[in-house]
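RETRY 2/3 - previous attempt timed out on the joint model. Re-submitting the same 769-residue input unchanged.
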Amino acid sequence: MQKLADLKVGIKGEMCMISDPELEQKLLEMGCTPGEKIQLIRKAPFGGPIAILVSSYILSIRKDDAEKIAIKLVKNE
Amino acid sequence: MSRMKVKIALAGNPNSGKTTLFNALTGLKQKVGNYPGITVEKKVGKAKFPKEIDAEIIDLPGTYSLFPKSMDEKVAQQILCNDEDVDYPDVTVVIADATNLRRSIFLLTQVIDLKMNVVLALNMVDIATKKGVIVNVDLLSKELGIQVVAINARKRKGIEILREAIINAVYKKPIKPFLSVRKLFKTVIERVNEIRGKENDYASFLALCKQEISGESLNRCAINQLCKANDLIPERVQAKETVKRYKEIDEIMHLCVKKGRPTGKYQLTKSIDDILIHPIFGYVVFLSILFAIFQAVFAWSEYPMDLIDGLFVQLQTFTSNSLPEGLLNDLVVNGILAGLGGIVIFVPQIAFLFAFIAFLEDTGYMARVSFITDKLLRGVGLNGRSIIPLLSGAGCAIPAIMSARTISSWKERLITIMVTPLMSCSARLPVYTLIIGLIIPAEEFMGFNLQGLVLMAFYLIGFVAAISIAFLMKFIIISSERSYYIMEMPSYKIPDWKTVMYTIVEKVKVFLFDAGKIIIAISIVLWVLSSFAPGNKFEKIEEKWAGKVDAEMHIAAEKLEASYAGMIGKTIEPAIKPLGFDWKIGISLITSFAAREVFVGTMSTIYSVGDENIQSIQERMKSVKNQETGEAFFTPAVGISLMLFYAFAMQCMGTVAIVYRETGHWKWPAIQFLYMGALAYLSSFIAYQLLS
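RETRY 2/3 succeeded.
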């Protein structure tokens, strides 16, 4: 288990848990459901938002919020 | 023969091609209005259907679900949930992007569960196929229990079949809910139905999740008690349902969608993003694009503007010669035509500016700009999403302020609304263009058009002011609400030219007709004020100069000074003298409080009144002399001071009205009006005193 915010660009993982109920609701409806595969694809400069690939689209969220998202790493195929 | 009336609502995620489909279904037969009571822009169109059907389509704001996170999403939810709403549709068309199906279907299934007549318009199936995502449309239709039509909105493909499907859907409700909330939460849903007095399981489920249902005053107390009695926490209820819904969707996706390798589309987007979101190049590119836009707006508009200018001069000469001499002739030529010419001339610049903004939004670039600016904007109390209102503010503050509705935090939205009018809108463009043409030589500076550079500097000043004021407000406005930035970054695409064209036509129309009406009215009032004087002052002036050298010129000048307009200008002159303005500019400042672009019309009216020759406005203003020094009146100091005043002052009734409606309180437009006025006066004062 790792925090989404700590991942390096290119790393793939699986959504595990979002420790903040308000954030969780918002991300769930965007398709970030438990077990869903994601990939960190970009970090904005100067500690800005991060972008993840989820259900074949790119979603950007703030780094602070990514701190609250637990990820299970999956091996690159 | 009575025609069948059908109301159609178009719903879908942002970036799903919704607006393109709307344009495809309606053509140019559309109008923009407001939903009753609220100001969300409501786009309604007449759809082209067989003659016996009178079909009206509403383009709902883009939304990801029926759990609204922002104001515009709430509008979509309210219309879909309230079967007594005037806009409640007979058929809802949900548009989904086939390359992004999983998330799009989430909204669709929620709409199905509201027991609505639904058609799924599956956009870009052909492109998805090319990218290795193969969707079995027939199977999808069977699994969902609704009609699914493969379309390509841009290429206008499948639109005919979609029309047929819409007609078929009028009497065809989905057979069963996609996900039975009744099964999931047992008797609780039934109880909420009873509390609401309405039988709609999914609407009741939304009410259970703390959502408001428009047109109903929910008995919150009863619902809260119900939750307590059943040991339910609304947030958990919603999360559980969402997860379950996605599980069901994933099963259908597994059946109906075959996926190849990561798509080429994503790869292309990735390579473009490598540059556009680069820590250094990203910002360089962004600034360069802005720079290029302003250079282009200035350079490309020059030719059409000269053309329009020449046309109006000819029109004025022609009218002046063909109408009998007298008051009517004077009113038409120097009042109405002069004012009108001052407006029409700026249509090319406004069209180009809106074309660029629409283009940037349509390509998906705006989402990137907000991605790389969120950190900076957040530091000053704004949000990455604020960049869209701010940049659109360079076009017009009114739609820009409305676009701030996508910002979910009230504080960030409010600050965005408060500072957006500082961005230099297209109404300032005429003022800037006119004055820059007067005081800045048309030379090249380091290979760039110098006038274009100065223009850009003024846009920059507006932006810097907006950021600084936002930063101050961050500390003044207190809010405990959390701020979010959850945003989709759409794949890059070549913009749909027709959609861009519609946007331009729409904006130019608003500028010409809405602003034009005010301008014509003010031009006439102004002409009256400057053509008449109390008592017999005009006669006295004519007597005084009768038979003397240069009489015509002196009579004209003294008449204007003696007129009602002159009196008003003179009254405020002491207050604006420290800014370098005389009573003639004073008149323009007063008329400009309705709308800034009136300045140009006023200037042309003031300077053409009593003038024998019809010249273009700039020529006229250039020849104006300072009565004290005898040199040109419009010195750089006066010009800069005047432009700064227009950059900061809140001279737009439309914006005041929209801020009131968007914030729901007079307090905010009042504060905005005062702070912007103070800023304008102070900066003009300092600039003039330093430069002169």
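Residues 281-322 of chain B form the longest helix (42 residues). Closing ticket.
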